[in-house]
Amino acid sequence: MTGNPLVVVDEVEKAGSVKSSNGHPFALSEALLPLLEPVTAADWSCPYLRVRCDMSLVSWVLLTNSLAPLPEPLLSRCTVLQLQEVEPPDLMEFAERVGRARNLSEASISSITDALAAVAPQARMQPSLRTVLRMLDRAADLNIKPLAM
Questions:
Q1: Is 62 helix (H, G, I), strand (E, B) or coil?
Q2: Where are the domains of the chain?
Q3: 115: Cβ–Cβ under 8 A, 6 or more apart, which residues?
Q4: Residues 6+ apart with CB under 8 A from 111
Q5: Mean pLDDT, the chain, whole residue set
Q6: Taking the model in full, what pTM does it have?
Q7: Could you give the CA distance from residue 127 to residue 85 in angstroms, rounded to a whole number?
C-alpha cells in the first residue's frame, strides 16, 4: 500500500486569516508550516479530530499570483517555480487547437484569434487562458443556438 496524496491549494495568498474558537487569529500559511516540514508532518496532530496522523507522504502544490503577500517561513519551505506569462501567440495557438477539438467553425476560431491579435501589447489588461476558454465556450454556445433575429 502506498500513501502519496497530492494536495493543490490555489491562490494561497488570498486565504487570509480566520479566528479559532478561542478567538485567536490563524492563517492558512501558519497551518501549513508543520505539514511542510517532514519531521513535524510525520507526527501531525489534527486540531479538529484530535488524532495523530502521518502526513509526511503528502505532496503539496501551492499556487499563487504573487509571492509578496506570503510569509517568509512558508516560502522557505517551498521550492518556488515562477512561470512565464502566456503570450498572445500561445493563446492564439491554444484557441485554434481547442476550437478545432470542439468542432467549432473556422469562422468562430478566426474571430477568436483575430480578437486576440488585436489586443495591443501595451494594453493594461492582457487576455488570459481563462479569457480564451470563455471565448471558446461562447463560440460553442453560438454554434448550438444562433442569436435570434
A1: strand
A2: 6-75, 88-144
A3: 135
A4: 139
A5: 88
A6: 0.68
A7: 10
